[in-house]
Amino acid sequence: MDNYYWDQVIKEENGRWECKLCNGSFSGRTSRIKAHLDHIKGGGIEPCPYGGVHSHTASTSSNPFEGHQGKFDAVLLIL
Known about the structure:
Blueprint: H1 2-7, E1 9-11, E2 16-19, E3 25-27, H2 30-38, H3 69-78
Antiparallel strand pairs: 1-2, 2-3
């Protein structure tokens, strides 16, 4: 999956990378690209204004509870 993130940037000769979406220039490895594109807090990098949920992680289901029914059933029992 790291290849997905490297495909979203252009490697610069000075060891930095440029985001293909916002054209921002940053330094760092894959974890910083992920933080930038996926808006992960604590990565020490500005989130991409055009990033967010990407097709490789997005759900194709219209049911937000798919795969989590057991967890929500337990919560309903507690209520």
